[in-house]
Design brief:
282 residues, alpha+beta, SH3 type barrels, five-stranded antiparallel β-sheet, 9 helices, globular
């Protein structure tokens, strides 16, 4: 099977565009109306949703479909609505909320849609995972979550229009333990595991919902919740160890948590989707 072959005439690129068009609703009838305005029948849309979701979740494909899909979907969302502008400090404040009040509570408190949160979190998570100045992000989020858990109110944030910029990352509190240094893991015996050494850690993106056969549920609201919610006790920013197929355990930082899957950023900048059972707290 060609994993890139269109499904009922709908390519992956077109599916990303249609998903963004439908990002404000999970109602099947409303989705059908939206795609019909784009010249796509309801039957073809339903087949494409089921088919592309299955390919994204196919472990034999090592997440290649999901990895290609998500940037296209994010770009389509950005064309539909500008990415809300949130500073890094405000993003940390927002990330500290879901482990305490849940993702729905966080969205309600900050008056955000799931699509807007997708855009904000997707933007910052891409920066955080590849920029060493944000290596203490997890510690900052844990501090904020602890403050809220102790009775503090979620911090006020400023949300504006346009693409957010990347200011200098703030420092963790002086009394907090220091996060790991990236340079300390470059000399692991045998180096970092190679792509072919992955176990069944497919880089697919299953999201919040329970119906894994439905792409909109699998990715949250119209494939859109780049989450800071918790799955099995993990939350965005958590410091974890990943059990690899070579028998070793490697340190990383959770960037997303979704329907039994955890996306982990490693110190070399690599981001990998890992089944929850292979991830443990550090």
């Amino acid at each position: 099977m060609d994993p890139w072959a269109p499904i009922n005439g709908i390519s992956l690129e077109q599916y990303a565009e249609l998903s963004a068009d439908c990002s404000d609703t999970q109602d099947a009838a409303q989705q059908a109306e939206i795609v019909q305005q784009k010249g796509v029948s309801r039957a073809d849309w339903e087949a494409a949703k089921a088919g592309w979701t299955a390919r994204m979740q196919d472990m034999s494909l090592m997440g290649q479909v999901a990895t290609r899909f998500m940037p296209m979907y994010q770009a389509a969302l950005a064309r539909k609505n500008p990415i809300p502008q949130v500073s890094y400090e405000d993003y940390v404040a927002m990330c500290g909320c879901p482990p305490v009040i849940g993702i729905e509570g966080t969205l309600a408190h900050y008056k955000l849609s799931m699509t807007q949160w997708t855009q904000i979190a997707g933007h910052w998570n891409n920066i955080i995972a590849t920029n060493p100045q944000y290596m203490q992000h997890g510690l900052l989020v844990e501090q904020e979550a602890a403050r809220i858990r102790a009775g503090g109110a979620p911090k006020p944030v400023t949300i504006g229009a346009g693409a957010p910029q990347a200011p200098q990352a703030p420092q963790v509190a002086p009394q907090a333990p220091q996060a790991y240094g990236m340079q300390g893991y470059g000399a692991q015996p045998g180096g970092w595991p190679q792509q072919q050494a992955y176990p069944s850690y497919n880089q697919q993106a299953a999201q919040f919902g329970n119906d894994v056969g439905n792409a909109f549920n699998a990715f949250g609201n119209a494939l859109g919740s780049f989450v800071s919610g918790a799955v099995g006790g993990f939350a965005a920013g958590s410091q974890v160890m990943v059990q690899w197929s070579d028998g070793n355990r490697y340190p990383g930082t959770v960037t997303l948590v979704q329907n039994g899957q955890v996306q982990v950023a490693f110190p070399d900048g690599r981001q990998v989707w890992v089944p929850q059972q292979y991830v443990s707290p550090r």
